[in-house]
Amino acid sequence: MGLRSRLAAPDEPTGTDQGDSRLVAVYRAKLLQETDLAEMSAMPTREERTGGQRKFVLQAGVLFEESEADLSEESLASLEAVAAAIEEEQPEWVNIFGFTDSQGSYDFGVQLSNERAENTQLALIDLMGDAGDITFNINGYSEEYFLYDNSTDEGRQKNRRVEISWPTGG
């Protein structure tokens, strides 16, 4: 596998183990370059358009109760904009990645982040009415790819998120 495909994850499905530390460092650096950290932390939902990709990052606190995977009623408003964008662009595939903080066991974090990503997918499909031929790449990364300091309450809160992205072709 080429270097480009290894470094692209988790933005693109590659079917490989995403846990290597170089990948984590590159991914975190890329995100930090794209948006000022103070600006990122102030928004419960943010949208990024970079390098032929459109991405929505939603803070888990907006979508879910702590340690829960069921979407809150309030989360639907945040997901409506994402669903509308997906419907408009009709991408071939959409990534939905869940992330947790470092509290609890790693295995619980993987399970919780996977369930959150899956529930987000189901809500988006419901909001779109018809997902057509879109392939969804769902993955939970637990505490991997953290963006903030997991040793503080504020940092852990900001690390709990769901990222939804797809290629835009330009």
UniProtKB/TrEMBL annotation:
Q: Which Gene3D superfamilies match?
A: OmpA-like domain
Location in or out of the cell: Cell outer membrane
Give the main localization category. Answer: membrane
Q: Where is this region: Disordered?
A: 1-20
The name of this protein is: OmpA family protein
Coiled-coil features, chain-numbered ranges: none
User: Which ranges carry the OmpA-like domain?
Assistant: 51-170
UniProt keyword terms in alphabetical order: Cell outer membrane, Membrane
A Pfam family the protein falls into: OmpA
Q: Which InterPro entries match?
A: Bact_OuterMem_StrucFunc, OMP_bac, OmpA-like, OmpA-like_sf
Which PROSITE patterns does the entry link to? Answer: OMPA_2
